[in-house]
Amino acid sequence: MAAAQTEHEVPKSMLCPKFLHSNSTSHTGPFSAIAELIDNAYDTDVNAKQIWIDKTQIKDIECLTFMDNGNGLNYKSMHRMLSFGYSNKKVVNGKDPIGIYGNGFKSGSMHLGQDVIVLSKSKNDLCVGMLSQTYLERTGAEEINVPIISIKKPEAKHFSVMEEHQASLRDILDHSPFNTEEELLTELRAIESSCSSTGTRIIIWNLRRTSSGKPAIDFITDRYDIRIPCDDLDSSDPDSKYSLRAYCSVLYMKPRMQINIRGQKVKTQLISKSLAHIAKDFYKPSYVKKRIPIIFGYNTKSKEHYGLMMYHKNRLIKAYHRVGCQKDANNNRGIGVIGVIECDFLDPTHNKQDFVYTENFRNTIRNVATKLEEYWRQIRFKRKNSNRSNNVPIEEEEKRPDQNWAQCDKCQKWRRMPDGINNDKLPEEWFCYMNPDPQFRRCETMEEQEDPDSEQPANPKTYKIQEKEDKKKQEKTKQFEKTSTPKKTRTPKEGASASGVSTSSSHQVRTEVFSPSRLKRLQPTTPQNESKRQKLDGPKRNLDTDMSLSSSTTPPTPVPHKDLNIDDNLLEGSSTPAPTEPTLHPVGVRTESDPMDSAYVAFTSPWNSYVNDPTVNYIIPQMRDEEEMRDKSIQIWDEDEEDEEEMRDKSTQMRDEEEEDEGEMRDKSTQMQGPGLKDEEEEEEIREKSIQMQGPRVKDEEEMNSSTAANDGAQGMEEGMISIIQAQEEQDQFMELLQSVSNERDSFKESLKELHAQLELEKQCADCQTAREKAEKLSREKEALLETHSRHNQEHAKHLEDLTCRLEKSSNEIEKLLLKVKQLEEEKATTAGEPQDHGRV
Fold first, then answer.
1. What is the pTM of this model?
2. Three-state SS string across 467-513, please?
3. What is the largest CA-CA distance in the chain?
């Protein structure tokens, strides 16, 4: 066959009938094909309020039917719908059309079945068109032919068509399930059963089958649903993947049309309002003028069904698309979270099941994934702070929607239900007059208006503030630990001491940094030449020791005051003046063989480390740990007590012996004075004995003096130990007081944050209340204007009726007058002709 020619002899492009099948393969499943037919009824040019989807039997042929109560199609619009690439849909009342390519009906219907017939009734026309692969095969057509007829003067069983439509009528009756004109008229009259004078009915037969010969659509499993056959259902897959009823419930972001499947209404969802813990965020692409709102929330039905719900011009494109942290199956981040976004700035694919994979699409997914994880972290942080005793994960607990909305079956407007009302318990047919809120009980009342996106704040990221604070604390802690690492001093070698004192004592002193909870003010000590040490008077006294300077001793290094992590306000408000950096002196340590001096060194070294102030942090010499120091102190203390007891026993024994010797000497002297001295030799002997006896007495007195000195040293050590314990107790009390003040400060800050958040919430509530009052005022004014307008219309109609009546009366009178004038003229003519006739006779 020669190629078709135009008037200018230029060949036209041709479409092979096989293109119908290849075009239908753009759909990956039957639900996307069914959605194309639903979109045609929903779009502005048809503007249907209801659509019915059902399965029927026509002459033992299983058929899938679609019927809506829209505006219907005339002959021209029917021809465009059955052709390829024609789409002249426009925006009406701010409602964007979904169809943009002019291919949806052809690809969708041919995917569901091989043949389709369309019967439509508009205000002024009845049309029937057919698109059939079976018809094209039987007739051997090389191009796609579409029989279309326009019916004129329909009667009970017959109708007439134009002469040029006779061939199309014969092909429809020969190759469709309807073989007579009466059967076609019966299907056209079925449109009127939708309580509308206009509408469209689509019938698809020779339904698609799989490669194994089974039907691609399951009508048996659920008598009130249409399902996709699947042997192994996965609980992680949403119901919308297998159930047409579930798919249609979320097909539109804000549904405006009632969908009925196999005799039952689909409970459509206002998905952005049916979530729990709802939060709103915004995405601002560089190539879009305004911000794109994103609604985040938790699925209240199943935690297994989560991801992004991506819409384009109110139509679902991608459902439960997992992004970012939700893709990782090994963690629980983002589980149960649903994000709702309308991506009008992206381009959908021809089958409207995905977006074109461009750089803009990738940037959108990446940014939305980041915001979804931020929402998940914020919800967990908010929940942890609000109820610390609740250990149940938010994904596991039972949730309810933050808001409940119902759609009127008459006006298709959405009404917000008061809190506490369960939508599942509402009747199947719900109307505005059933609304508990009296403000929205009329279908004429407008829907509740949402706040403009410019007035709505984004989801606050308070968890980020806490993370920054925690990070700062960790950095301070690391810096403090870094500056407070132990610095060991080298032990002086033999003969290396500056004073030349031997270091062979078994009581060696080691130095290290004190922990932050044990901060003390450093009391510098200087070497003294005196052998005695001063008496200990209190926890803040200066100790003068005879410890010599060692060449290997490392001087303390001060730590800046800012790293102490102590609130400046507390220091300024305290009665204790701010600490000043003291002049530091290197401290030398000497070890001696004398146990008393060793004990003195063991006690004076830890004493210097315990009398420090807690608000200043210095690196000070001390024992390796406090336990070792206490053990050595107790050991020395026990040895001193034993020595003291032994010395007391010796002194007591010496006093007893001295008293016995004195008694013997008195007796002898008394005996000698009685009879008198015999001779000088005996007197000299007595004198020598007394001198011998006085010798050990002097030694005993020296030993007693030494024991007294030892007792004084032990007593001084005991007093020093008691002072150390008292200083430590005072230190602990001060640290506890400081900790309590810090806790009070933190609690005050938290209460201040809560009050600030409550104030912001009250402010927002006040703004919402003001906006609602304005909306109510405008609504009342509108109703008043409508009533006034209707009253004026009634008055005008009455006035027009009066004028019409007067005009009719006037016209009747004019007609009567004209008749009278005509009669008078006739009489005049007769009277004028009589004399002439009489004269002629």
1. 0.57
2. HHHHHHHHHHHHHHHHHCCCCCCCCCCCCCCCCCCCCCCCCCCCCCC
3. 240
